[in-house]
Design goal:
Helix content is about 35%, strand content about 30%. The chain has helices at about 45-55, 80-85, 105-110, 120-130, 135, 150-160, 180-195, 205-210, 230-235, 235-240; strands at about 5-15, 20-30, 35-40, 60-70, 75, 90, 165-170, 200-205, 215-220, 225-230. The chain binds adenosine-5'-triphosphate. Belongs to the ABC transporter superfamily.
């Protein structure tokens, strides 16, 4: 039985600096409760696609010039990132972006900035610590002195503190050792299975992403060139030749 589509990206074009056409008509769908991966090499347009969805293009002098983006049937191209957080969509940017001078716990609490109920926030913090036991151990450490893996977990944990229904994850594996990447992806899978959080992630690490996602879109030069169930992509000869073993 087909699942409800939460996010529908339909033929979007994105232009940077009024001249550079970077996305040339990208379409993708994310079902409720899914883990969907956007795959492809450096510069393929993965980050730009996520930025277009969460409306973070403006700061980069980029704009969506064609197509539409719908969240549960509502057009969202003109909403601010804060509006999207209110609708349950939170982005974890590439490069982690924890506040270096704050402790892990202060970083997590910063993710609850849109909420006011202290009891709910405390409960949510406990929930984050049950998924990210490393963060609990490191709760009083300044983020700057924690490992890359802990900082990535902190960034995802902070997103979870906004109580999202969907998280956009940009390159969660970046700069991390393979066993730490596995640890991060296992937590993503757990949050998906037990909390019902939907994930759309951008990854260069095709191997790892296809192990955990249910569906994948492969991008090249601003276009989706192939899409399919993760297991089918992982067994596809072209994908094996061009993408697996990369990243
Ligand atoms: P990466 O893994 O390196 O982030 P990506 O697939 O996410 O790659 P994008 O970051 O979306 O790719 O970049 C797509 C193209 O857009 C690249 O050619 C890049 O140089 C260009 N680009 C990205 N950001 C900007 C910007 N702010 N201004 C101009 N061009 C940009």
């Amino acid at each position: 039985e087909p699942k409800n589509i939460v996010l529908n990206v339909n033929g979007i074009e994105v232009i940077y600096n009024h001249v550079i056409l970077v996305l040339k008509g990208v379409s993708l769908q994310v079902p409720e409760g899914g883990i969907v991966a956007i795959l492809g090499g450096n510069g393929a347009g993965k980050t730009t696609t996520l930025r277009a969805i969460s409306n973070l293009l403006e700061g980069e002098r980029g704009e969506v010039t064609k197509g539409s983006i719908e969240l549960r049937g509502e057009r969202i191209e003109n909403l601010t990132p804060a509006d999207l957080v209110k609708r349950g969509v939170v982005q974890v940017m590439e490069g982690r972006h924890c506040f270096a001078h704050l402790t892990i716990e202060e970083n997590l609490l910063a993710g609850a900035y849109t909420r006011s109920d202290k009891g709910e926030i405390a409960a949510n913090l406990d929930k984050v610590y049950t998924y990210f036991s490393r963060l609990k151990t490191r709760r009083n450490s300044q983020a700057a002195y924690t490992s890359g893996g802990e900082q990535q977990m902190c960034a995802i944990g902070r997103a979870i503190m906004a109580n999202p229904s969907m998280v956009l994850l940009d390159e969660p594996s970046m700069g991390l050792a393979p066993q730490i990447v596995e640890e991060v992806f296992n937590i993503v899978k757990d949050l998906n299975a037990k909390e019902g959080v939907t994930f759309l992630l951008a990854e260069q690490n095709t191997n790892m992403a296809l192990k955990y996602a249910d569906y994948g879109y492969i991008m090249e030069s601003g276009r989706v060139v192939m899409d399919g169930a993760a297991a089918d992509l992982a067994n596809n000869e072209d994908v094996k030749e061009f993408y697996l073993g990369v990243g």
